[in-house]
Amino acid sequence: MVTKTDAAWAAGFIDGEGCVSIYPRNNRPSARMSVTATNCDIRPLIKLKAMFGGSVYTSFDSPNPKWNTGFRWQVDSQKAADALEAMIPYLIVKKEQAVLFMEYRTYNRNSKHAAVSEHEERKTDIIDLLKECKRNPINV
Hints:
By secondary structure, the protein is an alpha+beta fold. It has five helices and four strands, in the order H-E-E-H-E-E-H-H-H. The chain has one domain: Homing endonucleases (Endonuclease I-creI), CATH 3.10.28.10. The mean pLDDT is 88.
């Protein structure tokens, strides 16, 4: 069980260091959906993994000896949705992206109950809106 305090902390971390993503797959009805965060300090990423699951791995080894190694936390699909659901009340920068992620997931899960073309059109719109949120977060 994630406490409100931990959810608020996670939201702040994701707002600053995270990414909410939906990656369509060619010739497949589903998309890869994930929440990630990257940092040179592994400790907050381990905390995110303990809270929401997922994986922590080395994101990059710096070719410059003055730079630190980067680490990434990643959570996909249902675990990503669960993480965002806990964080949405506290998100600021990524709130619109999280809401779009959750809407996309609803359309993805209920695609058997409505006209496929209607769902596919809305899913495409959501992906376009998510991209726009990343380019111009204040204008969306």
